[in-house]
Amino acid sequence: MKFALFSLMMNLPNAVTGEVLTTQQKFHNILQQAQLAERLGFDAYGIGERHGAPFLSSSPPVVLTAIAAATSRIRLLTTVTVLSILDPVRVAEDYATLDQLSGGRLELIIGKGNDPRHYPLFGIREEQQWDSLDERYHLLKRLWSEENVTWEGTYRPALDGVTTWPRPLQKTIPIWHGSASSTLSTELAAKYGEPLFTSNSFHPQAKYKALIDHYRERLTYYGHDAQQAVIGSGAGSLYLASTGEEAIRRYKPYYEAFHATAAAQHNQSPFTDLEDNIARGPVLIGSPEQVISKILDYHAAYGHQVLSISVDGLTHSEQLEQVERFATEVAPVLRRELPSSVWNDPPVLNEHENSFIPKATDTWPTAISPIFQV
């Protein structure tokens, strides 16, 4: 199994200490977290996209570009890019730029998002989200694979002979399809034989398994080999301790604080409390042995090759502690028990592109270097 660490950059007063970080402090901590993830052997680091408090992740390509400059190996994910509200021309330009600056380490996970606050901000109605996502996805694919694109649709002005610049560094920027609530996402992923990433964040296993099963069925329908399906999965929150009782005691204040936010209540969690979520839901709270057992159980249901975890909301020191404990006490067992071929090969670059890949030791312009002093 391969592992991604991700953040939605939630910036609430700490539920235990009451500490309030400035926006700049939070950005600084995210860069530290990504660098630690690379040092500890995580395969990818992801930034989600939200447009409203308490999240600071409204500009994933900007944040991921900073992370690209501060790292040299780790793959960069969007978890997710809310493509249903974004202009594909802008997405094509921003993320091709990031792909170039990162040395071809970018992979996009697209979705409609699950926070209804973004729809009025970007001028679409919630009932349009699926049609909008479908249209924008097809246009983005064309903009990255073709030149002189002529196109007409519903959700942005027509294009006549447009070539976006820069072109991506990779021959094909991988696109994963985020899946949380509807077979419309799994259908789109299956039709084009592209990988699926289940959110696996708010509901019991059976709900997400049904969507994954649908994805595999439709892969076969469209002539793809379902045995070769590539699937990633989220996992809710992470908190490791020596015993399950200690983990519950230490994590419960964070769980209750987050579930009191409007963003969490929108998801209408069916779990009555943390203990219920541990028993029936996706959170990874417990001893290393308990967490390993739970991940193995979910893998038996999903067959996923990539697992993403998050430590959002904890104190910064706890975040670093939890990431290190997962990397040293959990990940080695799962890598051994669940081998994965995903991300074993380097990215395939465009033939006409320079093969230079920046390293952490390379010198960056003085004007931007202070932000990377982490």
Automatic annotation (TrEMBL):
SUPFAM superfamilies: Bacterial luciferase-like. GO terms for molecular function: monooxygenase activity; oxidoreductase activity, acting on paired donors, with incorporation or reduction of molecular oxygen. Pfam families: Bac_luciferase. It comes from the Bacteria. GO terms for cellular component: cytosol. InterPro entries: Bact_Lucif_Oxidored, Luciferase-like_dom, Luciferase-like_sf. Residues 10-304 form the Luciferase-like domain. Coiled coil: none annotated. Keywords: Monooxygenase, Oxidoreductase. The keyword Transport does not apply. This is Alkanesulfonate monooxygenase SsuD/methylene tetrahydromethanopterin reductase-like flavin-dependent oxidoreductase (Luciferase family). It comes from Paenibacillus barcinonensis.
